[in-house]
Amino acid sequence: MTPRPRPATLTELLEARRGAPGRYVAYSPSGARSLSFAEVAEESAALASGLRAVAPPPGSPDDIGNVVIALADPFAFITTFFAIAAAGGVAVPAPVRALVHPGHRSRILNIVKASRPSLVVTDEPQVKGLTDALDGSDIPVISLDELPRHGSGAPGELARTSPTAYVQYTSGSMADPKPIALRHDHVLAQLRQAAHAFGETADSVSVNWVPLYHDMGLVTSVLRPLWSGYSSVILDPFDFVRNPSLWPEAMSAWHATHTSAPDFGYALCAQRTADPGRYDLGSLRVARTAGEVVRPETLSLFSDAFGPAGFRRSAFKPSYGLAEATLTVTTCPLDEAPTVLTVSRSGLRAGSVDRPNDAGDTMELVACGPPVRDTSVWIAAPDGTPLEGEGRIGEVWISGPQVAEADDAGAGGDHLSGARGRGTGDIGFLSGGQLALLGRSRERFQVRGENYYSGEIEAAVSQSDERLRLGRTAVFLSHGTEPGGSLLVVLAELRQGHENVDAAGRAELTRKITRLLSSVHSLSPGRILLLPAGTLPVTTSGKLQREACRTWFEDQGSGPLPAPSEHDERLKGS
Fold first, then answer.
1. pLDDT of 140 above 70
2. Exposed / middle / buried, residue 502 (Cβ in 10 Å: 0-12, 13-18, 19+)
3. What is the DSSP letter of 144?
4. SS (H, E, C) 417-462
5. pLDDT for 151-161, tens place per residue?
6. 0.70 cut: is pTM over it?
7. Within a 13 Å sphere around the CA of 198, how many CA atoms are in the beta-carbon half?
8. Which of 62, 293, 370, 408 lies deepest, with the highest CB count within 10 Å?
9. Contact between residue 326 and residue 182 where contact means Cβ atoms under 8 Å apart
10. Contact 167, 186 (CB under 8 A)
């Protein structure tokens, strides 16, 4: 028997999985809905015909160009995503709460401006508001219900597929979001790599809550399950933040084998789940943690909380990835527990990886594993020259079939590129073949000739007192705001219930933070600002937007901080 050809596009992949046993499940406190892969194929084919009838073609008759999708319902998002590809277009996922959230509103408007779509498909209540916000533009904004359906059929028969699968906008943790154009071959290569790295089969079950318009949500909840043919249980991120125990509840009910979330999600769940031992997480084989710095404290916090539920610490798979690489670049080996490296804090400041001199010099870092299949990772000097040997600190460079070329990504000057690969802007080193991250290049600053990393200091500050909100401290060096030059600034959010701490309490907290920075980090903060919960702006994946914080501070705090993202708005009680 002649083997079937391997799918070359997402449209072909969907068609090939019509008969697979897996399905998409929308899980909420009110119950669960399901949609088979065959139903996704039928509905997306019908929608594709409607898209071609509505979207004005920018070029050839087979090209409807970019189509922005901002749909909250997971089934609406999934079917529309595949319909755009079947119609010969390119999906551009966007935030879903433009009318009620200023951060989402500005982000989707920037995405529309940058992507120049032929059409915006959104939820019906948002149509008029977005149309008004795009005043003067000829880009049509319609609801999904307005798209005509012209029957069904095999999606691949409808139009010539664009080489680009979709355009993913980066989270913008350090600057404005940038478009990453991912071709079908990039995406399919990543899906093959993930299936191998995470041991995914048709018997797997994933449970996730990360928004589908985010790269982690799209790949882990939509594309990876389709590749291996397994079921994907999708939680509304709003439901998760309102009630974090919904996540282990769903994992228990559906006997999840795989899940994926940023570090803060695991911490939030462990802190706000009552009686975690009542759930059953014994089937969980992979708990991928990525999207921000993976903290040793979070691994212990979640493992201790859900150990009685059968969770094994070895299930944690710290990973490193970025939108430019579709998602995953490195991950902890499937059959190994996470590696926690113990290094010298003073050595890192001097630019080297050394053993600690004593307990006070000790710093722990979670390694993010070796590269996934067919992928190379190396450390380079600022000019892109590879640094030979392990333990060399520099910029992380990557290459692999899942990595978008710099020209495709529109990365401008933020990422060096060359024939061998591309720079990521992240700083780290290799140890035992695994990648250890120290932060973004713009998170590193120098004081008295020594290197410091914002993330390291932020973690120490936010954990120094129970009145401070975990993961919501911004530390940066401000230039030109004082006659003496640079100023170390600490912006720390207070947990809900502690915003009204009196002047004596604030002074005590300020002294505590000052002593910590002086004794442990040999730093003298110039300004410490204690802020209400939900003040600091973060991205859609929960990362702090330090540049926005710095800009606000250097404008002398005139006006409010930029609107926080949906995560920050909904995490005020964390």
1. yes
2. exposed
3. G
4. ECCCCEEEEEEEEEECCEEEEEEEHHHEEEECCEEEEHHHHHHHHH
5. 544 444 455 67
6. yes
7. 37
8. 293
9. yes
10. no
